Structure prediction request, 155 residues.
Amino acid sequence: MRKTAAFGTVMVLLATATNLVHAVSHVGQHVLTLEAWQWAYVICVIYLAPIVATVLLWTPYRLAGAWLLLASMAGSFLFDFAYHFLIPGPDNVFTLQPGAWLGMFWGSSVLLVAVSGLGTLVGGWAVVRISRSRAEALSTVGPEHSRRASRTEAR
Prediction:
């Protein structure tokens, strides 16, 4: 399971770095128009949840970490794609005013969508891999060693 945790960790480091670069381009382009709920979403789903997921991947709660990684990366992908490419507004790359930071904003927006899309795939892979590993571990224990069997025998 170390391989799964390592891939998840690398993915979160890559996503965090990309998000930080994009945040700098927001400042440079003077596009800081998020509403309160959007700030909360960005902080909780895009920044904090992947970090918590990474920590969980290295603990016995790795399946919860994998699910959190999947959910946070999918949430990041949907948010980034919608606000940077679909929804008209100040974050949309097609309506930005020309400026020195326009190229960086464009590039980091594309990179955000690509990285969060890849992160979603890594999160899904981690869920499947950890779930299969647990299922295999449970099947090798057998009914004579399971907790339910031992409780029944104690009666």
